[in-house]
């Protein structure tokens, strides 16, 4: 069995827990408590998708664990890394030491919060994401909603982004 991991830029705030979406070449490879994408999920093509397709057609089962990370964070989102590592550990049934990742995640949260204190426009943006996140409870946005958010994110990044200079 192979395991793919990564992050999906999503319209989620850094102030909430990180959700992990699971994929699998066969449904029985993941447990009932793992989140599956709802409906048809369309995302840009990636090498990992080609690899998954290739391996599954050769009888090698595979799973994927994908952290939904805030689309406005330009660097690696450490809480997403923690969430994915924890999910892989549960899947394998073995402990995986997190080392300094928990401290790194807390430090990144402090840094992002400090940016928000200095940028009322960014704070308002994150508050809107929080309201949407809270209203959705555990419902994932549709593939179309994710595509719209990714397109908006790419436009904002080209223009300097909400945290740009």
What is the topological layout?
Elements: E1 2-10, E2 20-24, H1 47-56, E3 62-70, H2 78-92, H3 101-118, H4 120-136, H5 143-158
Parallel strand pairs: 1-3
Antiparallel strand pairs: 2-3
Helix pairs in contact: 2-3, 3-4
Account of the 3D structure:
The structure is a single chain. The protein is an alpha+beta fold and 165 residues long. Helix content is 46%, strand content 14%. The protein has five helices and three strands. It has a three-stranded mixed β-sheet, sandwiched between helices. Helix 3 crosses helix 4 (120-136). The termini are far apart.
- Write down the Rg: 17 Å
What fraction strand? 5-15%
Q: Look at the structure and give the mean pLDDT.
A: 84
- Give the class from helix and strand content and strand pairing: alpha+beta
What's the tally of helices? 5
Low-confidence stretches: none
How many distinct beta strands?
Answer: 3
Give the neighbour order of strands across the main sheet: 1-3-2
Report the end-to-end length measured between terminal Cα atoms: 44 Å
Overview features:
5 helices; 14% strand
Describe, in short, the structure shown.
This protein is α+β, with helices and mostly antiparallel strands. The chain has helices at 47-56, 78-92, 101-118, 120-136, 143-158, and strands spanning 2-10, 20-24, 62-70.
């Amino acid at each position: 069995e192979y395991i793919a991991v990564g992050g999906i830029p999503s319209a989620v705030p850094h102030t909430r827990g990180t959700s992990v979406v699971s994929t699998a070449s066969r449904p029985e490879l993941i447990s009932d408590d793992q989140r599956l994408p709802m409906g048809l999920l369309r995302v840009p093509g990636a090498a990992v998708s080609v690899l998954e397709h290739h391996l599954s057609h050769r009888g090698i089962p595979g799973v994927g664990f994908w952290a939904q990370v805030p689309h406005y964070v330009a660097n690696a989102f450490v809480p997403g890394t923690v969430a994915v590592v924890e999910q892989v550990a549960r899947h394998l049934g073995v402990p995986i030491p997190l080392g300094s990742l928990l401290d790194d995640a807390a430090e990144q949260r402090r840094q992002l919060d400090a940016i928000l204190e200095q940028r009322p426009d960014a704070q308002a943006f994150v508050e809107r994401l929080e309201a949407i996140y809270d209203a959705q409870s555990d419902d994932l946005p549709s593939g179309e909603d994710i595509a719209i958010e990714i397109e908006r994110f790419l436009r904002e990044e080209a223009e300097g982004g909400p945290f740009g200079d």
